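@channel anyone free to eyeball this complex?
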Amino acid sequence: MLEEKASSTPKPREITTRPRVSDKIFRAVIFTGALSSLVILAAIAIFLGARGFEILAREGLSFITGYEWYSSINADGTSGDDPSVYGIGAMLIGTIVIAFIAIAIGVPISIAAALYLNFYAPNIIRGFLVGVIDLMAAFPSILFGLWGFNILMPSGEYWAKLLHKYLGWIPLFDVSTPFFSRSPFIAGLVLSIMIIPIVTSIAREVFSQTPLDRIQAAYALGATKWTMIRAVVLPFGYSGVVGGAMLGLGRAMGETVAVFTVLNIVFQANFQILLGAGGNVASMIILKFGEASAEEIKALMAAGLMLFLLTLIVNMLADLLVSRTVKQGR
Amino acid sequence: MSTNTIATPKPKKPWRPTPKALIPTYLGILATILGTWILIEFTGLAGKLGAFASAVFLTTLISSLIAGLQRGKQAAKNAAVAAIITSGALVAVFPVVSILGTVIARGVKGIYLGFFTTDMGLASVNDPLNVGGILHAIVGTALMIVIATLVSVPLGISTAIYLTEIKGPGTRLIRFLIQAMSGVPSIVAGLFIYSALISGSGRGFNGLFGAFALAILMLPTVARTAEEVLLLIAQDLREAGLALGATQWRTVAMVVVPAAKSGLITAVILGVARIAGETAPLLFTTGGGDVTNLNPVDGVMGSIPFAIWKALISGSEESNARAWASILVLLVLVMVLFFSARRLGKVRR
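replying in thread with the prediction:
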């Protein structure tokens, strides 16, 4: 009887973590799809690099440092007398100058908005404002361009004149000729508005990760709201906000259409931000693309590659900073 | 008899300031309004902006003065900072109000019925407003959005599934790359498609290439939102599926994805909203035709952003009005997408 029962015991089942065939196929398919981001980013670098290689090799370092952009080959294929020169130095400087103006104006406003949303706003207003700011992030850039050109530029010019009148003794706000329209300052102003949603939402997320016990400890020690923010929230969120600002910087550097509509592109290094002459790599590419010869197109590809690498580096650094802070709070 | 006369005590709110305590606040508001009026009337400040600036300045000053007199220096600082932060939030929202107001006010002038049923094939940009429309642009934008969605949604969602379900080798790298990809400037996507598919190949501009460029921009938005949504699905559901003996792919296909359905649709809608108004990549890939073109693989194709761009560049009064009307259409499209995504997202939570 006992022996009979023992013989009817089923054989021990083999327990394994080896996936079934269907799972293997599933994982392979999903993995292939997941590789798309890697493939696309690599392809962008390879194709732009390959097309622009000829110009990059010929110009060498002066492609980045040179201020001159002159194509001797006309669109109809005839060649001029002088050799072509391609340098995006002025445009790179302009891109960075405009992006920093955008950061200087946009980031303080975003931090104030994020602090208000997290610590000051009543619940009803908070939900409404978050919706409005998210909606702003969904606005297409051409909308900001059109609005910036028609609405913001006239008042921007007025503010530029005021700045020049009262702060003109600072070299940054001086102008060599009184021409205030379509200046880097106005382009930066438009960009500052465009980066407010992204910087605000990141700052808000970072601030909301502040450990509650530290906030309450500050209040228990008799802190006012502001001293609590200064002693707890700002130190905690510092690197995350810096990362958010850098994300905004990356956006501002790559923005094309909105800048093109409000900026007068001139190939010179201009640090007088109120003067109506500036540069921006992305807008320059659009400006030159229309009538470009085959050779100039290659130069534009090389310029696109520079822009791609610049924004990629800025974005990666920003991402590292943000994810570190957010993780730290969890 | 006396059973009904038990007095229910009225709820009291002892933390509420008494009317007497509110007097300084009311006086402060009055002083701010008066002060703003005086500043505008008697100094160089002018316009709405001047009024706003002086109101902010005076609110900060007076509120901190009141708090300081009542409760000391720290309270004064606190009140000043609160006023500044609140005005900062107001400044952040102000552009949205201005943009919506301007676009609606200027856009409706150019809208008439034929605007949606005719294209610009027989009209020039300088023609009066009742000639021509943006049918070609609406058709082109719709076609390109459909193609871009077909390309990017499978890739984006499989990326998200890889990051949340499989978590195989390279998970961190792929998450990092998706993040980096969302910052790729839109113009670079256009240049890339131009350099890879158009330049030197003898092929011309067409809608398909435009859709490819848009797909590159849409992919990270879809992948990131879908990842967040899948992370919200309770781990219990996955374990229940596996405990019932399902393989991983059955668990994902029959349990996880259906549970996250509305969230995944939100991800797709947000992706579409991201690309609906993209202009720069289309300038390098589509050619921006004026005639309604239903064939995405042959011939130039118009789109709403490109139509706005053309009208903006030509600069005449009629074309400007047309640009505003087109941007109103684009704005309505983006807002419909945005609010439907939010609605779906709310249902989920």
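from a first look: The CA atoms of residues 279 and 305 of chain B lie 5 Å apart.
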